[in-house]
Amino acid sequence: MSEYIIEMLHITKEFPGIKANDDITLQVKQGEVHALLGENGAGKSTLMSVLFGLYQPENGVIKKNGQPVYIKDPNDANNLNIGMVHQHFKLVEVFSVLDNIILGVEPNKLGFLQKREARAKVMRLSQTYGLKVDPEALIEDISVGMQQRVEILKMLYRDNEILIFDEPTAMLTPQEIEELMEIMRGFTKEGKSIIFITHKLNEIMAVADRCTVLRKGKCIGTVNIKDTSKEELSHMMVGRDVNFNVQKKHIDLGDVVLRARGVTVPSKLHKNNAVKNVSFEVRAGEIVCLAGIEGNGQTEFVSALTGLEKMSAGSIELCGHDITAAPIRARSKLGMSHIPEDRRKHGLILDYTLEENLVLQRYWQTEFAHNGFIRKDAVRKYAEKLILQYDIRSGQGPVTSVRSMSGGNQQKAIIAREVDKNPELLVAVQPTRGLDVGSIEYIHHQLVAQRDAGKAVLLVSLELDEVMNVSDRILVMYEGSIVGEFNPKTTTVGELGLYMAGAKRQNTAEKEVSPA
Fold first, then answer.
1. Which of 163-177, 316-330, 427-441, 463-477 has the least mean pLDDT?
2. At 215, is the secondary structure helix, strand, or coil?
3. How far apart are CA 461 and CA 298, in angstroms?
4. Which residues contact 456 (CB under 8 A, 6 or more apart)?
5. In whole angstroms, what is the distance from residue 11 CA to residue 60 CA?
6. Residue 510 covered by a domain
7. Which is nearest to 183 in space by CA: 165, 199, 197, 167?
8. What does the buried/exposed string (b/e) look like for 17-27 if buried means 16 or more CB atoms within 10 Å of the residue's CB?
9. Cα distance from N-terminal residue to C-terminal residue, the chain
10. What are phi and psi of 151, to 5 degrees?
11. Is residue 451 one of the residues assigned to a domain?
């Protein structure tokens, strides 16, 4: 019997203008967590889409237990006990948790759906693996972390033994990430094999047995985790040393750029307010971070700040102008840039080209338009400049459909567009979500460069390492209120965690918070 449960030998997959996988070999043992590491656009998701039957390779062979297999679609993959949790979940939002789990393999008797048996199996699996889902809840009403549990249960319900996780922690809170790590360890103890696509070196070091590294579509090598380090993995991934420490110079604070006073935003999910009487200021030359576990009001606050949602009380000033009721374009003209939390929903028009997306907020300016007509040559030249400057990788350059780009390169496109506007206030929500270490280093440099240039930066992040390294001040949000203000130089991750979980609260909570 073969040493490997799955072998992908000399796989080549091409798209117009790009060779996504170039003669890649991946061999996975039974009962191991095998990490697949690489930069954005390195070919990781493409390779797994080949294994799951979503793409057909031009060359190469796939073997299971030493025997060649042909996987023409996901049904073939499921028949071979291969399951996949995609980076962007494949769930029907108006269906219940149970209906999503059994979709496509519904148990029936004489043509009648047998939901009782299915529900019993789902609850048994849920209890066995500590996944704790409500089978009757609608997908649109549950958190991202819960949606991921539903995707995992879909695989378990189909008795999959090879589990592919594509960027599974990109949308999760730190607590949910730790829970997922425990679930993965439990799977391997039962003999299941996991292929774990990620950019996060700490997670690889914590949970993986071996790691295969891809760079620009080629396989750089496979290493045993116990014999390597984060620094070695990052060098394999990007081809150079990566500096994990953020360097910031001393800068005197300037005028108040953002002033929020008593901001209150109603919740769409319940009768309580999502944001409750929040007040703070951000000055020129500082990075202020709103930290907190997802679902504690950060998203709603940013939506009110950027004009996507209306406030029920309070006021917001930008550079001395009251923008409480201002339209989105007026906020942009006054100097606000916004890197949104959901890049696909709020950051991009997926079926537009890359060059069209790069001028979404500027196409009407004289640089890009004349007498009401867009100057396509100027747009093309501008897009080519940003693609080169921000290393945005796309198969067909400026004319690439954004939908076809990797998630990380979609994020780079948004950051390029928003930073290049030279804003007075940069609102950056999860700016490094789904990015590799080289790109994270670059984005952190961009945020600090804005600060050092005397601009104001409001960072919203779940990544505690990012919060501690990049911020000048940290404001913790819990249940819609500011419950603490911290200097990253004098606090700890553990202390922040207590405030984020609601276990502690400063006396200054819900008072006006301003820099010393």
1. 163-177
2. strand
3. 9
4. 257, 258, 282, 283, 284, 285, 286, 288, 424, 425, 426
5. 4
6. no
7. 165
8. ebbbbbebebb
9. 68
10. -60, -40
11. yes
CB of 204 closer than 8 Å to CB of 193? no
CB-based contact 55:452 (threshold 8 Å): no
Angle of CA points 454, 457, 463, to nearest 5°: 140
Which residue in 478, 487, 468 sits closest to 509, CA to CA? 478
Supply the CATH number for residue 481's domain: 3.40.50.300
Region 215-225: mean pLDDT is: 92
The answer to the question of residue 41 being in a domain is yes
| Token pair for 100 | 């999503």
Kindly state whether residue 268 falls inside one of the protein's structural domains.
no
Token readout for 429 is: 């929500």
* Euclidean distance between CA atoms 296 and 275, whole angstroms: 8
User: Strands, E, within 331-455: which ranges?
Assistant: 336-339, 369-370, 373-374, 425-429
191 C-beta neighbours (distance < 10 Å), count: 10
State pLDDT tens for residues 288-298. 999 987 778 89
Burial grade of 371 (CB within 10 A; 0-12, 13-18, 19 or more):
exposed
Pick the closest to residue 198 from 419, 34, 401 (CA basis): 34
- The HSE-up count of residue 145 (CA atoms within 13 Å, CB side) is 15
DSSP state of 134: -
pLDDT at 507: 63
The predicted pLDDT at position 1 comes to 64
Helix (H, G, I), strand (E, B) or coil at 279: strand
Amino acid at 509: A
User: What is the count of structural domains for the chain?
Assistant: 2
Q: For residue 463, give its domain range.
A: 284-310+323-500
The residues that bridge with 369 in the sheet, in sequence order, are 374
